[in-house]
Design brief:
Shape: globular
Strand content: 15-25%
Number of helices: 3
CATH topology of the domain at 10-65: Glutaredoxin
Oligomer: single chain
CATH superfamily of the domain at 10-65: Glutaredoxin
Largest sheet: 4 strands, mixed
Length: 92
């Protein structure tokens, strides 16, 4: 069985300057070998508007194939990437 993540996921990470949780998500995605596009809301007001549409008020927000994960949530990120099975009992 391969440990490589499934290919083809579109991942956008919304971050802001000096956000340690954004850095934690960044490191998590990199540890999984998952490419992502980073959008810093401090650098571009349009990115902040996008973030609000996904339900985020702050960062990080990770959008995987159109599904947002608000905050630092490794399990939800890995579920959406197909690295672990989806478990509906983990939803709040």
């Amino acid at each position: 069985m391969s440990a490589d993540p499934p290919a083809g996921h579109a991942v956008i990470l919304y971050t802001q300057n000096a956000c340690e949780f954004s850095e934690m998500v960044r490191l998590h995605l990199e540890s999984r070998g998952q490419p992502y596009s980073e959008r810093n809301i401090d650098d571009d007001p349009a990115f902040r508007e996008e973030l609000l549409r996904f339900g985020g008020q702050g960062t990080p927000v990770t959008v995987i194939d159109g599904d947002p994960v608000v905050g630092y949530d490794e399990q939800s990120i890995d579920e959406l990437l197909g690295l672990i099975p989806y478990n509906p009992s983990t939803e709040t």
